[in-house]
Amino acid sequence: MSNLKGKSAIITGASKGIGKAIAMRLAQEGINLVLAARNQSTLDEAIRDIRAKSNAKVIGIPTDVSRLDDLQKLVTVALREFKAIDILINNAGVSSQYPFEKQPMEDIEKLAHTNYLGYVRLIRLVIPYMIERKSGAIINMVSGSTLCDPIPKTFLTYSSLKVGLRAFLKGLFWEMRDHGIKVTSILPGVVDTELTDHLENITKEQKERLMSPQSVVDMVMFALSVPQNACPLELAVINQQTPWTKPVIDYEQKQAK
């Protein structure tokens, strides 16, 4: 999919952080954008910023990816506005970091419905239209924590769902390749976003370990730029100084947010 101008993309979690950075770059490539996020005001701000720096067509749809009806509306509006969905970037996600015995039950439900079902359902809704056109790219933010065995302490629910998502996407790759559809998982380390900005006790050394969202954007662009007969199945971009023995952000720091 090296010629990107005029293509259409859905990006979830698109109003800030990694999602917004991806949207800005795709807009500069001339890709029409359907941005999805829960908050209308942050969506509007992202759209203003993108329009100020590109001529791409961009719309925003308030979307809670844990709700099936919201996802159905998102796909319906995208097709109505742009007639096709060439690219799907599943980026929306929530985090909940606790020792498992302290993790709220409602957080477990939220993680499952957002970080796993949100991806699977939206892919299921989009894929029939990509199969019809024999073309498409599905790029998914998974997690660098899935590279750890065992998965990091205090991230058991979050990371185990990401492990399941990673397995699903590997299988999807094999099912979709004969339809001309590419499926790529991106496994990022900890990125410098709003989450880390809110931490009160994070040290300068720990802050320096965090990657810029641009590192993830570069992986997305690589996945979209390779020849049609090639597909990066997984791309891991990890902090150069990540300590594998414990999370970059520990549980005590998370509580200071």
Description:
The radius of gyration is 18 Å and the shape is globular. The longest helix has 29 residues. It contains 9 helices and 7 strands. The relative contact order is 0.14. The chain has one domain: Rossmann fold, CATH 3.40.50.720. The chain is of the alpha/beta class and 257 residues long.
What attributes does this structure have?
257 residues; alpha/beta; Rossmann fold; 7-stranded parallel beta sheet; 9 helices; 46% helix
Helix and strand string, N-terminal first? EHEHEHEHEHEHHHEH
- For this structure, the quaternary state is single chain
Main pleated sheet: 7 strands, parallel
CATH fold descriptor: Rossmann fold
- The level of helicity is 40-55%
Instruction: Order the strands across the largest sheet as they lie in space.
Output: 3-2-1-4-5-6-7
Structure summary:
The chain is an alpha/beta fold.
Ordered list of secondary-structure elements with their pairings:
Elements: E1 8-12, H1 17-28, E2 32-37, H2 40-53, E3 58-62, H3 68-82, E4 87-90, H4 105-133, E5 136-141, H5 156-176, E6 181-188, H6 194-197, H7 204-209, H8 213-225, E7 234-237, H9 251-255
Parallel strand pairs: 1-2, 1-4, 2-3, 4-5, 5-6, 6-7
